[in-house]
Amino acid sequence: MLHDILILIVGIVIGAVIGFFGARTFMKSYLKKNPPINEDMIKALMMQMGRKPNQKQINQMMKAMEKYQ
Questions:
Q1: What does 27-38 look like in DSSP terms, one character per residue?
Q2: Are 61 and 42 in contact (CB under 8 A)?
Q3: Under 8 Å CB-to-CB from 46, ≥6 apart: which residues?
Q4: CA 64 centroid distance within chain
Q5: What is the pLDDT of residues 10-67, one digit of tens each?
Q6: Residue 50 to residue 62: CA distance in whole angstroms
């Protein structure tokens, strides 16, 4: 009886750990392939704020976004 409960708890813990790392790996690869913000979005945002961005400013914003991902 105690042996069965212990196996169940260990199985749940192992499943949770494997699920966590599997989901983490999947989300990292998904975000790398489909970034939430791209250069066109940054350019549109800056133009809406009344600024005409040059490529250097766009690259700086992209690097800042990648730093926080």
A1: HHHHHHHS-SS-
A2: yes
A3: 52, 53, 57, 58, 61
A4: 14
A5: 999 999 999 999 999 999 999 888 878 888 888 998 999 988 889 999 999 888 887 7
A6: 19
Return contacts of 29-38, CB within 8 angstroms, 24+ apart: 31/69, 35/65, 35/69, 37/65
The whole-model pTM stands at: 0.56
Among 25, 66, 27, 61, which residue's Cα sits nearest to residue 46? Answer: 61
Would you state the structure tokens that stand for residue 40, as one six-digit string?
């066109």
**Cα of 19 vs its chain's centroid, Å:** 16
Domain range list for the chain: 1-34, 36-69
- 64, amino acid identity: A
